[in-house]
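task queued by scheduler; priority normal; single chain, no ligands, no partner chains; default sampling; output format set to structure tokens
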Amino acid sequence: MFRVLLISEDGRGVAEALRALPRGAAAVQLRAPGLEAGALLVRARALRPVCAELGAPLLINDRADVALACGADGVHLPGRGLAAADVRALFARRDRPVWIGRSCHSEAEVAQAAREGADYALFSPVWEVPGKGPSQGLAALSRAARAAKLPVLALGGVTPENAASALRAGASGVACLRAVLRASDPAAAARALWQAVSA
């Protein structure tokens, strides 16, 4: 199971960040809300060989059709998206495993994701994020991490400074967009985040 999930909107900084991390330590989620399927597929096809070369699973946000078309390694589902089992059935003919994640905002949603057969859950927002509502905090993250035998990644305001506290609260790893891929130096930011997560 990867410990870091890098959330990308356009692929910028992904190669630099992945090269700074141990092989297999991270996965990449392509999330571009509002982008139509054809344009998303173009981005996914450009990102796929980068992730494959650097040993990082590529997950497509919400769009199982785009994930299948580009040969991605899985799908990250929103809270009210398709059931994980239904998405897994779409990938059943492939000769390699598929990663399926679920966005969750409560203990009950983490438990439901586990029952549906998700491979991991993203719990958010742990810390304050502009436009994402109030933060839930480490206590809520801890309860969510204990809600099921399912890896839970902390999302929302994650930085190298607070990532270790998410793991101490029970998270299996962390997910972020701004802290690494929007940093002026994605490689340095990725190294700093990994040092915090792996300490």
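post-processing summary
- DSSP finds nine helices and eight strands in the chain.
- The mean pLDDT is 96.
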